[in-house]
């Protein structure tokens, strides 16, 4: 049922379709659905070279305190998912075509309201040009900022950032680590190692994960090193070793994580998985007429990764419903933490169910490295892993870019990679719908691939990074498998 928004606001805009939009009404609606501090909705003209086009756009200043509270660092992906889920209750003409994230405060009028004309003047050219992140700095730096960038810590942090992101322009304090410098969750792990090496100090992951801008990072490092007596005057270097990731993944997960990883299948765990699988198969056969192809390609023993396209909540259970008998009792599932993990942390019974279900929860902030170590651990013990390299569900049904963590895990473990093409799940339950509907689903397993072969192929596709090479070639193989179906 479509929610009807009613409005008493005077300011409105008219779309090409003739539909009338009240910006403040939509701003209030979306602000309740996502961690947003300030938001301005307006129309953008001239997108994609079409002069007469007018699309609905928003400028978002996220509520960083909310992100820090829940340990989230990927601003855009979190906001997009919340907006996509909320917008399903709106008529199509009231849904945002897109949004721009900024850490800068939005201009206000003398009465304290957002200045729509000024915001449009500043941001519309940036939206059309596809720019996001920090605004160009005008004027001189404050005395505090000059001291910050000129300090020993500031100089070394900027040097580490420069070495990691490889951009030519000067890095400024207002730069967003994610939006301007492109540092994702894995990038933060690498950055932490560079900084630890540079300062010869053990820095907590939270110091890096809670920083959203360069200034946040320098202040956080300064606070973390406060009182330290042995900070070397000479920079200790910022480059990563060739075997950096394998060395870090080879560290055992924490004790509380190890308690969640059950490598052997006890009687109760076997019974739980048997019942869970039986229910899973029944649901998919009755409601989704599921069909499996190529299940014989799933290895019966040894380490392997089943990797599939991800468009729906149904993807993981669909794969589970199509697995042969032996692998279905051995495989682990790499699942996004906010969906499955947080409610189970303090509940012993539910936590044990997650353990017997062999779920490895992850998020994109402080627990990401721990989750990768857990995956490495089960793969090195000869188990299977179900992994969705895109990270989050695709809202379009198309196969998105693979996250680098997939390539790191594949290369470090040498596990066989089995592509899994899922069709019909997006139509049955897309990420923008609250409930599923009946639709046939087909799961097609491809032949097992070796990481070293994919790496060689990927290096011919325009990248010099071996992990990205594996991702590129593996994605190509999955796209071809899906196309063949």
Structure description:
- This protein is an alpha/beta fold and 485 residues long.
- It has helices at residues 23-33, 64-69, 75-87, 116-129, 143-150, 152-165, 185-199, 205-209, 214-224, 244-249, 255-258, 267-288, 315-322, 325-328, 337-340, 348-356, 368-380, 404-413, 425-428, 451-459, 466-484, and strands spanning 13-14, 20-21, 36-45, 54-62, 98-101, 291-293, 304-308, 332-336, 359-362, 384-387, 416-423, 442-445.
- Strand 1 (13-14) and strand 2 form a beta hairpin.
- It is globular.
Low-confidence stretches: 1-9
Structural class: alpha/beta
What's the mean pLDDT score?
86
Give the CA-CA distance, first to last residue.
34 Å
The Cα radius of gyration reads 24 Å
Strand content: 5-15%
Largest sheet: 7 strands, mixed
Kindly state the number of beta strands: 12
- What general form does the structure show? globular
Number of helical segments? 21
Strand order within the widest sheet? 6-12-11-7-10-8-9
Provide the helix percentage: 40-55%
List the helices and strands and how they pair.
Blueprint: E1 13-14, E2 20-21, H1 23-33, E3 36-45, E4 54-62, H2 64-69, H3 75-87, E5 98-101, H4 116-129, H5 143-150, H6 152-165, H7 185-199, H8 205-209, H9 214-224, H10 244-249, H11 255-258, H12 267-288, E6 291-293, E7 304-308, H13 315-322, H14 325-328, E8 332-336, H15 337-340, H16 348-356, E9 359-362, H17 368-380, E10 384-387, H18 404-413, E11 416-423, H19 425-428, E12 442-445, H20 451-459, H21 466-484
Parallel strand pairs: 4-5, 6-12, 7-10, 7-11, 8-9, 8-10
Antiparallel strand pairs: 1-2, 3-4, 11-12
Helix pairs in contact: 6-7, 6-9, 12-13, 17-18, 18-21, 20-21
């Amino acid at each position: 049922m479509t929610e009807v928004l009613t409005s008493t606001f005077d300011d409105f805009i008219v779309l090409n379709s003739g539909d009338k939009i009240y910006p403040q009404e939509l701003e209030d609606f979306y602000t309740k659905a996502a961690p947003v501090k300030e938001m301005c909705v307006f129309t953008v003209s001239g997108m994609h070279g079409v002069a007469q086009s007018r699309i609905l756009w928003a400028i978002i200043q996220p509520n960083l305190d909310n992100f820090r509270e829940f340990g989230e660092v990927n601003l855009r992906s979190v906001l997009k998912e919340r907006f996509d889920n909320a917008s399903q209750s709106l008529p199509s003409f009231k849904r945002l075509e897109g949004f721009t994230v900024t850490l800068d405060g939005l201009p206000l009028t003398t009465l304290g309201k957002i200045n729509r004309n000024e915001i449009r003047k500043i941001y519309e050219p940036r939206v059309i040009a596809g720019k996001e992140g920090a605004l160009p700095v005008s004027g001189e730096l404050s005395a505090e900022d000059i001291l910050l960038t000129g300090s020993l810590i500031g100089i070394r942090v900027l040097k580490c950032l420069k070495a990691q992101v490889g951009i030519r322009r000067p890095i400024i304090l207002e730069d967003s680590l994610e939006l301007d410098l492109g540092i994702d969750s894995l990038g933060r792990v690498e950055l932490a190692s560079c900084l630890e090496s540079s300062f010869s100090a053990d820095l907590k992951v939270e110091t890096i994960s809670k920083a959203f801008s360069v200034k946040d990072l320098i202040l956080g490092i300064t606070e973390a090193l406060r009182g330290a007596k042995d900070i070397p005057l000479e920079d200790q270097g910022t480059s990563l070793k060739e075997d950096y990731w394998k060395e870090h993944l080879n560290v055992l997960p924490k004790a509380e994580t190890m308690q969640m990883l059950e490598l052997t299948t006890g009687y109760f765990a076997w019974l739980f998985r048997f019942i869970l699988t039986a229910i899973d198969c029944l649901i998919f056969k009755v409601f989704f007429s599921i069909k499996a192809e190529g299940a014989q390609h799933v290895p019966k023993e040894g380490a392997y990764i089943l990797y599939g396209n991800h468009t729906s909540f149904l993807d993981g259970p669909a794969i589970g419903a199509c697995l042969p008998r032996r692998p279905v009792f051995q495989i682990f599932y790499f699942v996004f933490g906010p969906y499955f993990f947080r409610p189970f942390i303090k509940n012993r019974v539910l936590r044990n169910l997650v353990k017997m279900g062999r779920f490895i929860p992850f998020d994109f902030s402080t627990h990401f490295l721990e989750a990768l170590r857990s995956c490495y651990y089960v793969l090195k013990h000869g188990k299977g892993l179900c992994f969705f390299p895109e990270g989050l569900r695709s809202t379009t049904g198309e196969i998105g870019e693979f996250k680098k963590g997939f390539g790191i895990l594949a290369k470090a473990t040498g596990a066989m990679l089995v592509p899994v093409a899922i069709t019909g799940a997006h139509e049955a339950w897309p990420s923008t719908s609250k409930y599923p509907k009946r639709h046939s689903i087909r799961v097609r397993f491809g032949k097992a691939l070796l990481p070293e072969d994919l790496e060689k192929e990927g290096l011919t596709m325009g990248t010099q990074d071996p992990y990205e090479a594996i991702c590129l070639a593996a994605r190509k193989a999955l796209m071809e498998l899906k196309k063949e179906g």
